[in-house]
Structures
1.
Amino acid sequence: MTDPLNNLVILLCAIPLAAGLLSIPFTRRPLVARTIGLVSFTTNFLLALSLLVLIQPGEDVLVNNLGGWPTAYAINLVFDSLSGLMVTVAGVVALGVYLHSFTSLTPDVERRYFHALMQMLMFGANLCFLTGDLFNLFVAFEIALMASYALICIGATRVQMHQAYKYVVLNLLASTVFVMAAGMTYGIFGTLNIADISRIVHEIQAAGDPMPTGFTALGVLLLFVFGAKGAFFPLWFWLPDTYYTSPIAVTALFSGLLTKIGVYCIMRTFPLVFAVGDGFADWTIWLLAVSAAFTMFYAVLGAVAQSGIRRILSIHIISQIGYMIFAIVVMSSYALAGCALFVVHNMVVKSSLFLCCGIIEQHRGTDHLDHLGGLLRKHTYVAVLFFIAAMSLVGLPPLSGFFGKLVIIHAGWEDWWWLAVFALLTSPLTLLSMLKIWSYGFWNPEVRAMPGHVAPTAAKLRPAYIGTSLLVAVALCLGLGAQPVFRVAQTAGRQLDDPTAYITAVLGPTRPDLIITPPPDAGVVDVAATDEHHHE
Amino acid sequence: MTIIVAFCVATIFGTGLYMILGRELKGIAMGLFLLAHAANLSIIAMSGSPITADGIKAPPVIGHDVAPADALASTVDPLPQALILTAIVIGFGVMGFLLSLIVVTGRTSHTLNIAELARHERQSPFPEPEEGKPRVNAHEHE
């Protein structure tokens, strides 16, 4: 934990912000804007990756108190294993998607501040992942959302205008509730620093006192907020209608980043704060469990019923979120590690599937399965990319989806076997919907091209292929090299389950009165031991 | 004092929710504005009553006849007000966006009624060859 490293964390937010502002004057010069964007996304990813690697040996937590304000008064950025993992993977997803966008965007759309908006979305997302302050989290949400509002309407086609209001209205409602919840948190605890709230809550629990009045209500309010952003079961209705309308690069980035921010925020705030105490275990957790089952199973049924690739993939996003909620319901350190692993896998794989869909659209002019066919023979490379990504999504053993699902189901089998059954039932249906795309699009005999569609040149398609290959390669690495990634995820899970390290790092060793005593069993935990380590 | 603010919050929130459930996009936007106000008011209520046994608390301005040591005893808590200020500024931007979105939606589809919008969607195939998305999604959106 050296000082320079702590200060580097701010760059993860500053680089996208600076690049975004810098690219505004160059809207009419796409080459300059693209170069700025590429440099920004690449440095962002490499910086996050190297910080993540550097903190691993000591399981450090990097904290940057903005403005040099004293601890617990400053708004702080916290880079621990979980947020580091998220920022890194978000960085590589954004890089792949950005490369792909050079092919798929029309110049008209690109001129409408596309590059600046992408950078702002990245800035907001990184701030969401890194911030250690509840109100700052709201601000970060708003930054990311504002960019996403503009991106979802970019191009202003009729279908986008028809659907965009659903997204905007629902997110506005969620933001309003978030402001209220943040204000109430301050009213109850007198602080908005997540580590500080966590310390207070743990002290109350250690003393055996009841939680403050309204604590459970606060948890449920935040659950509504994050659930709406993450498309959990009763609040998912906006997603399938809005995601498929935007340009494919935007859809791919949204599918990789936005819903996962909701899941991440639950992973960050609930084990640390709102799941402490009895109120959560008594009934909030049942709310989540039912939501997980419906999210997984209903959504995959919806996906099987669709006949456009974009819509199948859009509804699939929701189904995969169900697995993450399942892991959150179990809430042991092992399950949270599985959740982190699954989120990482899902961000990469989901985006690469959308990017494959983008290439198919470039080739054939449509994503409707009735108008596709013969892709396997004619565009073999796309077929290979799609196959790897699709099988990762289904969770075929050597590929990345398998490990996340394995850990989550393994962790939840004891206490939540019925959820595990739903998770297992969802997998074959996922396979079915992927096979639907595969057999209609790739195996069927070739059909007549769409009228008026002009096949793109190889040079135009090159960025799309590079971007998609990058993401598929990362997905392959996540599968074949699952061990090191899982080790990081385990550190993340451990730090969430036992927040002592997080609290100590944020509030500082200089104030021993602020540090809670660690529970007796908080040593090195291996996979078999963590399995029995559930929260009650 | 707190109970009065609480009733105000409840009334505004209820009105806002009622308006959100309507079918007119303009009404929904107005409902959202009201909800934002209710949220801000609720933060004020959470920051505690300004009326104490000694009278009304002073505004949180350092040097306003207040010794900084016991500032919170005699002045109101400044942080909730800072939160509200931030929320208002952000809300202002988002509202501007929402209103312009509604204007554009009205221009492209000639209606601001949600039921009408949904019917348009079901009936008309989407004419956008330049996006490469043909008439696929029209008939499956029920």
2.
Amino acid sequence: MKPLRRLLAARRLDELAPAQKFVVYAPLLAWTAIVLFPLYWVIVTSLKEPIDVADGPYYIPFVDFRPSLHAWKYIFFDLGRDTLRPYLNSVIVSSAATLVAVLIGAMAAYGLARMEYRPSVGSVLLFVAAIALAALMSFWGGVDWRLALLAGLAIFAIALRMLGRRFRRRLANHDILFWVISQRILPPVVTAIPIYLMFKELGLLDTHSALIITYATVNLPIVVWLMYDFFCAVPRELEESAQIDGASRLRIFFDVALALVRPGLVATSLLVLILCWNEYLLALFLSTVEAQTMPLLVAAQNATRGPQWWYMSVLIIIMILPVIALTLLLQRFITKGLLVGAIKG
Amino acid sequence: MKPSSLGDVFDRQARAAFVLPSVLIILAFSIFPLLVSAYLSLVRFQIAPGGYTLHFVGWSNYRKLLFGSEQFHFLGTFGEVGALEWTLIGAAALWLLAAFVRYLRGGAWSLAGLAGRLLATAGLLAVAVLCAYTTGGAGRLGSFTVTLFYVTAGVAAQFLIGLGLAYLCTLPVRGRWFFRMVFFLPLMVTPVGIAYMFRMIADTTVGPLAPVWNAVGLRQISWAADPWLARIVVVIGDTWQWVPFMFIVLLAALESQPRDQIEAAQLDGAGGWRIFRDITWPSIAPVAASVVLIRLIEAFKIVDLPNVLTNGGPGIATESMTLHSFIAWRTLDLGGSAAVAYMLFFASTICCVSFFHFVVRAARRAQGA
């Protein structure tokens, strides 16, 4: 009996019994293998000649097959500029979109966390109606869209002056917050076609700006959501003392508030950056050649000659590497930042 | 009223200046496209000399999806339903009815709550009947039912695996930071890349698992030609990518719960399972419900994996609703595409809002009590 008991019971509370150890480590190691093996297979495949893939499976370079750098050469030198362009596009689009989304989103989150908003329901509806009128004017009336927008805004201003005092029902901060967050439920495919038509009308299809604006919009809800929690979690005393010292609102926001939530800011930015970097569907709608991003280039390796596994593997690797590097670099911030967000639930 | 500097102007309008950019961007690039999409779903788009024309056709696009020529594509092909399925549906209906009666007798009911519950109940029952019809006999799934399968199977698998791994990582194990780092990796891979990766891995003749398939005599099987196998491969790819997200958040929740209660229970001789059920689970339930909700929202949008992994095939067996809509757009059926997109919008909104009200809120209330 004694050896059996030693196998099943731990000596101390913070230790595992030998039998427990197996039950705990086996699934952890199994999942490690499940995570790492596909990545290993991609690395190995990037070193294979087509014949090694077709005759496969071969597992270990130098043992099973002779590794070759032909795919790497093809992607970096033969394809050269055609790899560089989507890569730069991806870098520009995702970093600019992240910057826009985080800046605008953090401002909104700060406002919602620190100030009181009580817009009346009537004025919001009025505004939407005025803009809809402007859209109708430019779509069917053939009016230039800038002119139509100006007219719409003018109508809104006049109508608000006339009717403003009659609106009684008001919204509060949590209504605005809920509205912003709920935008995330909207599947991108619902808005993709109108956005496509809109950018076509503006002549912005297949440009960086179209992708940047769209990505910033779809990720804005995440930023507002997370940053709101972060701003609520830090004390406001520092900001209040800065206000007494006569600092302007804008200065307080940039110099005091943003500095206080820096871990959250970094974690949020990284999350949004990864989402933009990997985005596929909207890029498919909005870009063709000039603004083509990396996910599209990867997908395009399924050419007429069948999937070019070795080229794909190289592209996947060079897409993952910068993300891993960034994550490792910012790791300290991420655990801290995510922890706050998660505990707030 | 003369502004003395730019900062002063900003300060006077500070409240609006902080929130307006976000609100305007969302209005311009979410709300108005949403309205335009609603209009597009009611028209037929045709290429005409010198451009295109839009014919207003009313509900025709939706009718086609639900009852007409596109029904097989959207809802699926109907087979026959056996006695067993009817019994199951009947049991589900009774259970929902009981919950409904309990709500009414609770006294605190409101008109909005009643309407929401009616909608959720009706939706759930309709989906149950639909699933019975499209899986029974000669039935085939359509893009709507396939999407529901991806969402439920994927999110359930990700939650269970993520929770299990997170729980194991809170035990005194060595190399915790290593596991944490490695488990996080899949989240960084682009879904398109994951799709190709799993196409390579799942290849039964030259993939790395070929010897295994050989040994069990399944070398000749082609998962890409079998509807259910293809769908399961899609779910596996999705799960591989999203377990890390569940893992990270649930780990943070598990680590933030007070240790003393658990240690006291351990000293009293309570087993691991009882501690988990009575102490750990109730304390992480709100976070768990929130994280499942976040994944539900995102899971409805699945498109990259089925598009690259199977191209929607065999036939339409792995087409998600987003992919269905995209394919309709590519064939210039703008109205049909917008109608599918809107159905996805309705389905995901009803599902996510119901989940928020009946699960997330309930979990938070239970903890507050």
